[in-house]
Amino acid sequence: MEKEIKGQTALVLFSGGQDSTTCLAWALDRFARVETVGFDYGQRHAIELDCRADLLAGIRALRADWAARLGDGHTLKVPTLSDISDTALTRAVAIAMGAGGLPNTFVPGRNLVFLTFAAALAYRRGIAHIVGGMCETDYSGYPDCRDETIRALNVALNLGMAKSFALHTPLMWLDKAATWKLADALGGAGLVDLIRDQSHTCYLGERGARHDWGFGCGECPACELRAKGWRAYADGLGS
């Protein structure tokens, strides 16, 4: 990222998960001020939102310059998204592949809604930069995670709000192992340990079992992806 954005503010989509926490560190390393926004949409794993307080406290304790740059946090309620969805992330149903070839963890329009609400909030707060953890490399085929989707939405938001927003997706071309490596590069072992122990990824909202990669059921697609990435990252440290 170019040095000239250091004097500006970014708004990070911060769910309390591994990816969004890594994105928060990425933004804190680049922008003069960083605000966060999370979304309560009736998700089955709403416990992720509760993890944010400990993550933010850990971020502040990790680096004084990050603590100084970390600004307001926001939570927006979007219950209608759950009301109109019938997915494994918003209903107590088994995770499976849908008839259309997408997993039933896909919440139609979720990232489009999130980024639109984030842009509306950014508009009000005079923020031009919005950071999200969408990724096309390690993802479940979600069409709203694709780089093409994000770029198209960026154009639509700029036209529809007559603003020049910049949507940043620093994880777009990284797999989970590379995401762990990025966290290490940004904040060292302290940030890696914070993300491992305090962030939440499990689709089922399970935090009872402790694994080497963190807490989760260990069986849902999100846990499997996180675990696979951790093993590849850890193996790379030993090589």
Keywords:
239 residues, single chain, Rossmann fold, 46% helix
Outline the structure in words:
With 239 residues, this protein is an alpha/beta fold. The protein has one domain (3-201): 3-Layer(aba) Sandwich (Rossmann fold), CATH 3.40.50. It has nine helices and seven strands, in the order E-H-E-H-H-H-E-H-H-E-H-E-H-E-E-H. The chain has a five-stranded parallel beta sheet, with helices on both faces. Strands 6-7 form a two-stranded antiparallel ribbon. It is globular. The mean pLDDT is 90.
- Identify the strand order in the major beta sheet: 3-2-1-4-5
- What's the architecture, going by CATH? 3-Layer(aba) Sandwich
Helix-strand category: alpha/beta
Taken together, the total number of domains comes to 1
Unreliable stretches, pLDDT < 50, 5 or more residues? Answer: none
CATH class: Alpha Beta
Percent of residues in helices comes to 40-55%
Radius of gyration: 17 Å
The fourth-level CATH homologous superfamily is: HUPs
Q: What's the mean pLDDT score?
A: 90
Overall shape: it is globular
Give the structure's gist in a few sentences.
By secondary structure, this protein is of the alpha/beta class. The mean pLDDT is about 90.
